[in-house]
């Protein structure tokens, strides 16, 4: 993730991840009510996100009397987080990065189900 997302871009990504479906510009504006976005400014934000490669135009949908583009995430929230982590720790190997993140995450208790899932995934390597 060479170009981290701005706060507004990240808010849109969180919405796309949560909804797990392509959204039109009017839907994005409607579903993020705590922002007072001008439709032209959100258009610029979406174009920047396309340039960064985190969203893509997915199709067209009816928007009022006309049609508008729909936008879909091209990365999952985990892929985005991993990209940020890689950029923040370029001096670490993948092994060191993984062990470091695991040591931080394992400070909280894990369910038995999660422990079994980890064992299954490690054994599958």
How would you describe what is shown here?
56% of the residues lie in helices and 15% in strands. It has 125 residues and is an alpha+beta fold. The protein has a 3-stranded antiparallel sheet. A hairpin with a 2-residue loop joins strand 2 and strand 3 (66-73).
Q: If you compute it from the alpha carbons, what radius of gyration comes out, rounded to the nearest whole angstrom? A: 18 Å
Structural class, from helix and strand content? alpha+beta
Distance between the termini: 26 Å
Let me know the largest β-sheet. Answer: 3 strands, antiparallel
Q: Note the run of SSEs as H and E.
A: HEHHEEHHH
Taken from the alpha-carbon principal axes, the silhouette is elongated
Features:
125 residues, 15% strand, alpha+beta, Arc Repressor Mutant, subunit A, 3-stranded antiparallel β-sheet, 2 domains
Quick overview of this protein structure:
The chain is an alpha+beta fold. It contains 6 helices and 3 strands; from the N terminus they run H-E-H-H-E-E-H-H-H.
Topology:
Layout: H1 7-19, E1 23-24, H2 25-31, H3 39-52, E2 55-63, E3 66-73, H4 77-88, H5 94-105, H6 112-123
């Amino acid at each position: 993730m060479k170009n981290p997302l701005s706060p507004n871009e990240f808010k849109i990504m969180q919405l796309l991840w949560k909804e797990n479906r392509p959204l039109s510009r009017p839907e994005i504006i409607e579903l993020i009510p705590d922002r007072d976005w001008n439709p032209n400014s959100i258009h610029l934000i979406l174009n920047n996100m396309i340039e960064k490669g985190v969203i893509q135009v997915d199709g067209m949908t009816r928007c009022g009397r006309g049609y508008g583009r729909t936008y879909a995430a091209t990365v999952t929230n985990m892929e985005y987080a991993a990209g940020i982590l890689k950029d923040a720790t370029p001096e670490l190997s993948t092994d060191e990065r993984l062990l470091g993140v695991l040591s931080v995450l394992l400070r909280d208790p894990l369910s038995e189900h999660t422990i079994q899932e980890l064992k299954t995934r490690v054994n599958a390597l």
